[in-house]
Amino acid sequence: MRVALACPYAWDDPGGVQVHVRELATRLLGAGHEVLVVAPVRQAAPEPWVVPVGRPVDVRYNRSNAPIDPRPWSRAAIRGAFATFRPDVVHAHQPTAPSTGMWATLEARCPVVATFHSGATASRLYDVAAPLLRRLTARIAVRIAVSERAAAFERARIGGVWEIVPNGVETARFADALPRRDLPGGRRALFVGRLDDRKGFAVAVEAFAPLADGRHDLTLIVVGDGPARGAVDRLPPSLRSRVQLLGAVPNVDVPPIHAACDLYLGPATGGESFGIVLVEAMAAGLPVVATDIPGYDEVVTDGVDGLLVPPRDAAALATAAGRVLDDPALASRLAEAGRAAAVRFDWGVVAGRIEAIYEAAVAAGRPGRPDDPSIR
């Protein structure tokens, strides 16, 4: 099967959607499919199957940065790429965002499968545009949401029937990684994500102060970058020296960092559709302490394969993390349960479900007119 994947966000920026599309493409290629990815890029992509179709513009959305290409003239490049590749199915990611996923949906001349990743809780612009977007999404043969949380947000605005297929993770990469050797000694708590309000980086830093008190061997390892990086400067010098900022790290290089750590902190404050960083940590065998927010609660079951605390509550985060650090039996139980839970998100499971959806969409034939109410 010839599959065209449309990624709406800058291919060379870190982000969960980009990782999802890249790993799905790799899985599909390994299964013998022909794959084309269209995406906006900042510089040439190393993968020969990626066709650049625009340049990203950084847009503030859902309390984070969305590096999209909203300029509709990139449709011409997508049209040309599709004409050459002649896909059997187009898989558009986040097609309601004014970027590559939307333009690919409009240019497709074959069945369209779409995955919706947004975990936004509100969007006035989306609400206003919903009547027009319903006409666009009428072109979609199958609608996928990565979680019930994401489906609820979209269903309230564009309706339709939804398949829930979570994000995939190459669990073996995390389970089998060897520890990175250049990190500080002692015990290490890990944070991975964009350093901004939505990911709760400042909360993690605030929690680190009481957590580190009395645990003099503890270091906070931070993977990611963003506008909140200066939160660490509010710590006293003795604690600031125990926070190591690694900056943005390619996802392929992250598993050895997990393997070198003892605990994962996931203090996101909301707006998450899923919890791919939690699944990665669980696959790596790290006990997880995260916030009890929609999306995250579909990945972690409190007290079973992780501990969940209220969002924006640094004291609760520190207390829960301290319990794990001070109780090896609890840490071991959470880690073992987390590894087992992560298996259901492995790409071996997720890709198979997506392939079955492609086959059903192609067997059903081309979608009808954009205003055809029979198209779900």
Overview in brief:
The protein is an alpha/beta fold and 376 residues long. It is 37% helix and 18% strand.
CATH superfamily of the largest domain: Glycogen Phosphorylase B
The chain-level mean pLDDT equals 93
Under CATH, the topology of the largest domain can be stated as Rossmann fold
The side-by-side strand order for the widest beta sheet comes to 3-2-1-6-7-8-9
Number of strands: 15
Measured by DSSP, the beta-strand proportion falls in 15-25%
Query: Can you tell me the number of structural domains?
Result: 2
User: Which stretches are low in confidence, meaning pLDDT under 50 for 5 or more residues running?
Assistant: 368-376
Can you tag this structure with a few keywords?
single chain, 376 residues, alpha/beta, Rossmann fold, 2 domains, 7-stranded parallel sheet, 6-stranded parallel sheet, 18% strand, elongated, disordered C terminus
Notes on the protein architecture:
The protein is α/β, with parallel strands linked by helices and 376 residues long. The protein folds into two domains: 2-168 and 346-364, Rossmann fold (3-Layer(aba) Sandwich), CATH 3.40.50.2000; 171-344, Glycogen Phosphorylase B (Rossmann fold), CATH 3.40.50.2000. The protein is built from 13 helices and 15 strands. The strands form three sheets. The protein has a seven-stranded parallel beta sheet, with helices on both faces. Strands 12-11-10-13-14-15 form a six-stranded parallel beta sheet, sandwiched between helices. It has a two-stranded antiparallel ribbon with strand order 4-5. Strand 1 (2-6), helix 1 and strand 2 form a beta-alpha-beta unit. Residues 368-376 have low confidence and may be disordered.
